[in-house]
Amino acid sequence: MSTDTVSAEQQALRLRRSAGHFATGVAVVTSAVDDVPVGMTVNSFTTVSLEPGLLLICLKYGSRVLSCIEQSGAFAVTVLALSQQRQAQWFASRSRPTGLAAFAGTPVRIAPVTGSLLLRDGLAYFDCRLHAVHPGGDHAIVVGAVADCGELTAGEPLVFAGGAFTGCAPEKPRRPLHFSPSGVALSRSTSASAAGVTTRRNGTASPTQISANTPNAAR
Fold first, then answer.
1. DSSP code at position 192
2. What domains sit in the chain, N to C, each tagged with a CATH number?
3. What φ, ψ does residue 103 adopt, rounded to 5°?
4. Cβ atoms of 200 and 108 closer than 8 Å
5. 143 to each of 47, 77, 133, 189, 206, how far by Cα in Å?
6. What is the pLDDT of residues 73-110, one digit of tens each?
7. What do you get for the CA distance between the two ends of the chain, in Å?
8. Percent of the chain whose pLDDT exceeds 90
9. DSSP state, 185?
10. CB–CB of 194/106 below 8 Å?
11. Does this model's pTM top 0.85?
């Protein structure tokens, strides 16, 4: 191993440890192509603009979620609650299965505009159309135009800091409020643990059956 390689690895480790002191929220990003959904845990998520409504996420090149978003032109973000630590770990696992099997046992809803899956027990959601993709080193900076957003449940947010999950209780609990600039209400819900899940593509609902329940190596 060369000196330059060791130096680069040490610098990357320092960067990771230093960044770990900055507490972030935790979210799951979802998308779908041909009614086959994908999902992945992220903590590199932030709003960019209010007018127009834009947000960004950072995804590693070669990830299935990035490929799916680029093909479909749409994605959704669910902000996770403290009670969803298990789901955060699951959607970050390399051993999770592909397609609907990855959502088996996870209560989901259908995003009102793009039809992407939302984790029903999350705190809030953002339903987005792809706005732009910018290079960012070993990650792609994905900018989404917010087509719809709203609150799902009231609760304590899941926080990631120092390489571990923790919580951050809000000062005053609030009742969930739904904000729908598109005028579309989020009223449909389902669970991926059932025998079938309805997904929506191009505004048309279609049933999709779960074909596998056993985790296998992620590809």
1. T
2. 22-184 (2.30.110.10)
3. -105, 5
4. no
5. 9, 12, 6, 27, 28
6. 999 999 999 999 999 999 999 899 999 999 999 999 99
7. 29
8. 60
9. -
10. no
11. no
- DSSP conformation letters of 130-169: EEEEEEETTEEEEEEEEEEEEE---SPBEEEETTEEEE--
> Tokens for 16?
């990771």
Residue 17: pLDDT band (50, 70, 90) is confident
Interatomic CA distance for residues 95 and 146, integer angstroms: 31
Helices (H) and strands (E) in the chain, counts: 3, 15
> How far is residue 132's CA from residue 141's CA, in Å, rounded to a whole number?
8
User: Is the four-CA dihedral 44, 46, 52, 53 of positive or negative sign?
Assistant: positive
| Structure confidence at residue 6 (pLDDT) | 63
Tokens of 162: 């120092």
Check if the beta carbon of residue 57 is closer than 8 Å to that of residue 132.
Answer: no
